[in-house]
Amino acid sequence: MSAAVAARQILTRLHEVMASRLHAQGKLDQVVDIIAECLDSEVCSIYLLREGMLELVATHGLNAEAVHVTRMAIGEGLVGTIADNVETLNLAEAKAHPDFQYRPETGEEKFHSFAGVPIVYRERAVGVLCVQHLDPRRYEDVEIEALQTTAMVLSELISNNELIDEEEARGLAPADTGPATVAGLPLVKGLGSGVAVYHQPRITIDQVMADDIEAERQRVYRAFDRMRDQIDNLADRAEFGVGGEHEEVLKTYKMFAYDEGWSRRINEAIDSGLTAEAAIERVQQRTRMRMREIDDPLLQDRMHDLEDLANRLLRIVSGQIGTAASQGLRGDAILIAKNLGPAELLEYDRRRLKGVILEEGSLTAHVVIVARAMGVPVLGRVRGLRGMVQEGDLVLLDADNGNAVARPAQQVVDAFAARFAKSRERQAHYAELRDVEPFTRCGTRIEVMINAGLRDDISALPLVGADGIGLFRTEFQFLVSATLPQRERQFRLYRDVLDAAGDRPVIFRTVDIGGDKALPYLRESEFENDENPAMGWRALRLALEREGLLKVQARALLEAAAGRSLHVMFPMVSEPWEFDAAKAVFDSQLAHLRRKKKILPEAIRYGAMLEVPALAEVLDQMVPRLSFLSVGTNDLTQFLFAADRANPKLAERYDWLSPAILRFLRRIAQATAGSGVDLGVCGEMGGRRLEALALLGLGFRRLSITPVAVGPIKALVRQVDLAELEKAMQGWLAAPPQDMRGALTAWAQERGIETD
Questions:
Q1: Is residue 488 within 8 Å of residue 546, measured between CB atoms?
Q2: Cα separation, 195 vs 394, whole angstroms
């Protein structure tokens, strides 16, 4: 029996039950009888969420006396585990599962096999449908799909007959109507308050069973045609517009969009009697089950792509197209999303977007880099987010401490407002330093520059009084483009940046793509074997192999800098020959422009980023080649400690004030001292006041940081006596204290230096 036949048989009988005049309890009793008979199962039971507990409300095969008596908490036993994780369980031997709990009043001790599926309403498990069998066996896929179909019908029955509390139906337990605190990983620090806005509105399936199967099939065909047109059009657009998915998955999207197997499974679900929306959702449930069984991270990513595409198809077929950006933000908002691409974030009104909370996200995600440049606080890896924060809730986001409060009490709102006001006072104080040069107490001038990557970022230069742009990430233009940016487009961007910067220097980092920043217009096969993308084929390694890409960028930069100074920095240099090869590309393009009688840059300074520890071992060879050297502390730290920053278990484990990293940085400072090479830091470490204090003590005199950190770092610099600081740092590194961070904090506090 096929899945469609099994489901159709069940649905036909369920249609009759739903149309009958039986009361709700009578319908539930008939449902369990039908499922048990059609699946040839000794037991079928339904549990529903009532007053925060899962209550046995109907059963075929268990003791009837247990109905409305047996109750368990979310997460308790097999039933509670299904509801908690919103996932399917299929066990040949139930007792072998670590979460198994025996309830003597049910008489279930004689049954071995167990399968259960969540009953989902408004994206929350509000019940569980399960079956049990005397013999140990796993239920077949067709049986699981039949259970999932029935669970969808039960969801409709529940909502129409008020079988659970309305608050629970909306995804809120009684306790959740009051204040709720969610915790996560701070991705971009800062404070923000506003109403919760979902990036993609919830899709509520109001009708599960189809009245006209052929009409539902035609709706799906039309939705597939429209979705495929959208995906095809993305490749022809220079920039992603409203509703566009992130370009990195474009090729995978196209593959899935035209996959006949996927569309066939949806059609089979419609054949069983489901509406178009319900059919797509049932196939999605199967995808989620497979995702949980896959250990291969690459395959898991592909399954995530398919689920994202299914969400797009579901929005089209239901008529709920577009994101919140297309509707516009009506007031101060905290954006709620599973994940975001950088192009999607840029679609929002920066004046009203006060923060972002993500279910996923990592410190190295492209959207985090863009959000940091925009000054938008971001909290990531928030589990159960959509179940706790409802659209329209007031949300107080504290990305400094890694939490957010939804529906806060008034006293919490008042306290947050006071803290926010204090923060604004600090910012006003820092704004007063805009035109003040950052000299230390001993008279040493420290360069304070900003990191940028967007054309709009340049406006921050005069606002914060930075000395220039110490890192312009040219890859941003590549990341938010559906096709490889041509030379003319690159030229216009670089020229506009130089025009806006005026007499302030701009250090352009050549494109850092590949590996963890794979692009759809590069062959996917070139990246598929990169088990550790951050340390793989990326940045200068990719650019040197794809010489045409670097040539185009070199030509665009040289032409944009005609008649003025150009600063070029090569990323991820590990050996001197890589630097030489990259510079040779620029030299060849410079010679070409000279032959064409083009106006040339009046001066060109070449530098390198020190991110790969190996480069520190050959600095004696590198120094004569360099005009400047910038230490990229983000990548350097993860390479030095073998700690992936995207791994939440390691993200906060290694401290930038560890003696290991500080000693390594001191070696770099010593190797370049007196050479004439400008040494700086262009990483997050330089924008944190305590860490910046350590860098000054190690001999670093140029910091390139986020615009919002310029004022605080200027204020710090003006409080420091370098001779005193360097002496203290030498002592700590010679005999490291047990708590380096604590020692430096105490030292600063004794001298009235603010480091918070």
A1: no
A2: 4
Strand partners, 124: 121
Could you tell me the sign of the dihedral formed by the alpha carbons of 118, 120, 124, 127, in that order?
A: negative
Nearest by Cα to 680 from 476, 372, 503, 446: 446
The amino acid at 474 = T
pLDDT tens for 266-286 read: 888 888 778 888 888 777 776
Lowest mean pLDDT among 44-58, 646-660, 714-728: 646-660
DSSP 34-60: HHHHHTT-SEEEEEEEETTEEEEEEEE
Distance CA 409, CA 178 (A): 8
- What is the SS3 assignment for 231? helix
- Nearest to residue 76, comparing CAs of 53, 42, 44, 49? 53
Residue 717 near residue 448, CB atoms below 8 Å? yes
Which tokens in the block code for residue 754? Answer: 């603010």
What pLDDT was estimated at residue 290? 62
Residue 232: helix, strand or coil by DSSP?
A: helix
Q: What is the mean pLDDT of the chain?
A: 82
> One-letter amino acid identity for 88?
T
Range with top average pLDDT, 47-51, 129-133, 328-332: 129-133
Nearest to 62 by CA among 82, 83, 41: 41
Could you give the CA distance from residue 471 to residue 363 in angstroms, rounded to a whole number? 18
The 3-state DSSP composition of the chain as helix, strand, coil percent (nearest 5) reads: 50, 15, 35
DSSP 736-755: --S-HHHHHHHHHHHTT---
Query: What's the rounded mean pLDDT across residues 182-193?
Result: 88
Whose structure tokens read 């969540």?
Answer: 118
Separation of CA 571 from chain center: 24
Using DSSP's 3-state secondary structure scheme, residue 701 falls into coil
| DSSP secondary structure letter of residue 613 | G
Query: What is the length of the chain?
Result: 756
Cβ atoms of 46 and 58 within 8 Å: the answer is yes
**Gap between the Cα atoms of 227 and 238, Å rounded:** 19
Place of tokens 């003040």: 436
Q: Looking at the whole model, is its pTM more than 0.85?
A: no
Where b means 16+ CB within 10 Å and e means fewer, 501-530 reads beebbbbbbbbbbbbbbbbbebeeeebeeb
Work out whether strand 333-337 and strand 469-473 pair parallel, antiparallel, or are unpaired. unpaired
Asked if residues 215 and 270 have their Cβ atoms less than 8 Å apart, the reply is no
Q: Long-range contacts: 709-712, Cβ < 8 Å, 24+?
A: 710/430, 710/448, 710/450, 710/464, 710/465, 710/466, 711/427, 711/429, 711/430, 711/431, 711/433, 711/434, 711/464, 712/426, 712/430
Nearest to 57 by CA among 30, 84, 94, 88: 30
What is the C-alpha to C-alpha distance for residues 299 and 305, in angstroms, rounded to an integer? 10
- Contacts within 8 Å (CB) and 24+ apart, 428-431: 429/711, 429/715, 430/710, 430/711, 430/712, 430/714, 430/715, 431/711
